[in-house]
Amino acid sequence: MPHLENEQRPPRGEFRVSVTKDYLVFASAHFITFAGHRCEGLHGHNYRARVTLDGEINQESWFVFDFVEIKRIMRRLCDEIDHKVLLPLQNPKIQIAEQGESVTVAYEGKPRYVFPKSDCALLPVSNTTVEMLAELLTNRLHAELERVGARGLTAIEMEIEENFGQSAVYRTSLTSTG
Fold first, then answer.
1. Which of 16, 59, 129, 162 is the most exposed place for a label (fewest CB within 10 A)?
2. For residue 127, which phi and psi values (nearest 5 degrees)?
3. Domain tally for the chain?
4. Does 39 reside within a domain?
């Protein structure tokens, strides 16, 4: 069927692109606090990230966002917390103090851990649950996407898996810019 220049196209649907790769992972230690007076012991996970971007098709490139760029950004974000102890800076039950090259962690005022500062990722979260990590990485990705001038995105969704079949998803809607 020949293409006619003035042919009316039906309205376009929505586009969604997702990226998950073997290198979008981070192996990190953490502990979480629970309701009441419980704090679990230090342990680790081999986390895996998957990011999904919703948005408009760029009329020059014919994609939502460049896969190469999103993989580069996500790899850097994962690498920043890879092989680190993840510590929540906004948890009222946990006190974190930097002393020289060490980080001291207390739970409800009782000393619990001392780590080398270089082995810690001090995170602006209330708890290092997989839900909070998904939200944190979404916010960091959003800031990076704005920095590189991404246009036409309408949502970011981040899934963080801490074990096979055990994950949390955080989704935020964006005001499309374009």
1. 59
2. -160, 155
3. 1
4. yes
